[in-house]
Structure formats: C-alpha cells, structure tokens
Fold this sequence. Notes:
Blueprint: H1 8-23, H2 29-62
Amino acid sequence: MAKKTIKYSDAIQEIEQILEKFRNEQLDVDKLASEVKRASELITACKKRLKEVEEEVANILEK
C-alpha cells in the first residue's frame, strides 16, 4: 500500500501546530516522542518536495 503524499503547505502547517504546542508547553510527556517523530517525518517530506521542485525548475530553465 502506497503512502499518501502530503501537500507541502499542509506539512508546514502541521509542523507549525506542533511547534506551537512546544512553545505553549501543551505537549503531554506521553505524546512528546510521537510528536517529534511526526515533525521529523514532515520535515523530511518538505525537503524532498523542495528538492523535486528545484529539479523541475532547473529542467524548465535549461530548455
């Protein structure tokens, strides 16, 4: 089963929500590890998408 690809803007929004929880000390210790893991996954997805777009733009400019 393929993983669902999250949109870049949605990933950024979710990362911001997680950061806000950290800033406001709203994260429960029991959920801390899972939130950090999720943020890491989202950051990785954003980096991947940025790399893809960078390559697309480079290809367009080469033509």
